[in-house]
Structures are given as C-alpha cells and as structure tokens.
Amino acid sequence: MSTKGRKPLSTAEKKLKGTLQKCRENPDAPKVTTSAAYKPVAKLDTLAKKIWTRTVQFLKENELMGDVDVDMLTAYCMEMSKYVEHTRTAQQMEKDNAIAIAELEAMDINILSKIDAINSLPRPDRWYRMATMAFEKALKISDRYGFTPATRQKLKIEKGDEAPDALSAFFNPMFRSQIEAKA
User: Engineered SS bond to 81: which of 28, 47, 56, 112, CB 3.0-4.6 Å?
Assistant: First the structure.
C-alpha cells in the first residue's frame, strides 16, 4: 500500500534541516531510549561490521538510535552485506566472462564450439537476483519496522489507563489481579 506525496520527515530530520515547526510535531511519537554501547545480536562478517559501525555512529549522533533498533539494525547490516557481496561477485563474473569470450574469439575453432563454450560460462544474473532480493529485504526492514526516522515518526504510542475498569478486569486476567490487589 503506497501513500501519495513525499514521505514525511521525522522530528530529528526536521531539526537537522532547520524546518521544524512546533505545530506540525507529532506529540504521540515514541521517544528513543539509548544506551552507551550497542552490540549486534548475531555474528557479523567484516563488511556487515563496517556497515554496523557507520550506521550506529550516524544514528547515535542524530539521536535516532534506540535500544529496540538493535535487532533490526543487525538484520539490516547482514542484508546490506549480502547485497554488496553478491553484486561484487556478479561484477567479477562479468569481467571473467568477458575475458573468456575474448580468448574464445581469438581461437581458431568451430563457431558451434565457441557458442557451446560461451553458453557454459557461469551466469551472473542469478547473483544479481540474490543481490536484489537482499536489498529489498534491507529496505523492508528499514521502512516497515520503523528503523528509518520517517517511519518511526508515523508510530503512535497509546497511553493506557492507569487504573483498569471492571470490564477490562473481567476479560483480562492481568487486570483482574491488579484490581484484586488494590481491593
């Protein structure tokens, strides 16, 4: 489902641009809770660690990184690493294939043998497909789960009632124990 117009900017982005107006601020936007150091929840390869370090530094400097973002940021870094590695593999494969084709054309062999040899070369399109899939996953993580500031700004935190009413207590055992404890 897409929305018309441009994507809304977060409060932090508006502050950075200098276009923040109090009347257009979302009062129900969640506040970001931060800790001193963040560590990925899974083991990352070298490239994903570089992406992690760069992204965490940027998000912390702009006060956009929260404690709940660690899992999604780990998955994001892993997918972006896959995207870069698959793209590099496909590009290298294209270079190798171009060299092999040039060598085949220089050979004095039958045209059908050349065609068979060219068709037997590894194809980079499957690596590009995997790279595209990894990038799409990273984009979904960044957009769908509130990882990007603009999507986080759309979220609203609803504040629950302090004291549950009798109807809530009837349907929810957690509220029932709270009412019984007060009585």
Answer: 47
